[in-house]
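[Meeting: bench + compute handoff]

Bench side (C.D.) handed over the final construct sequence. Compute side (W.E.) agreed to return the predicted structure before the next meeting so the bench team could plan truncations. Sequence as handed over:
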Amino acid sequence: MSVDTTTTEPTEYSASEAVRRILTSTGDTWAVVGLSSNRGRAAYGVAAVLQRFGKRIVPVHPKAETVHGEQGYASLADIPFQVDVVDVFVNSELAGGIADEAVAIGAGAVWFQLDVIDEAAFARTRAAGLEMVMDRCPAIEIPRLGLG
């Protein structure tokens, strides 16, 4: 009997094991796509939490602003060093392209924030060998998993 692998159950794309692996063993350099100096945006606060958790954040935004003391870049391709995790704060319609860019730059994982879901991007990213979670927030997961 064969198993249907064409759909992704929510438990798979938000599995606690994958969340824990990404937070603890995928690496410490996180590109935060959509991060700007706008303190009212979720990305700003989550990036601060990641820094307190020991991660190096790399702002990725068309304005390429310096945020939380870290130089920003206009795109993932502009970052001149290895990125371990790509944390995505864009809407679901744009997120798949960001996931594809993460694969292209050799990132180890992709993290889609709360309400950012793209099943096809999840399948492509996992097929390329990267860890991935969707519809989760590291600022929530770090304390939930007892990591921070």
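W.E. noted at the follow-up: Strands lie at 29-33, 56-60, 85-88, 109-112, 131-133. C.D. will use this when planning the next construct.
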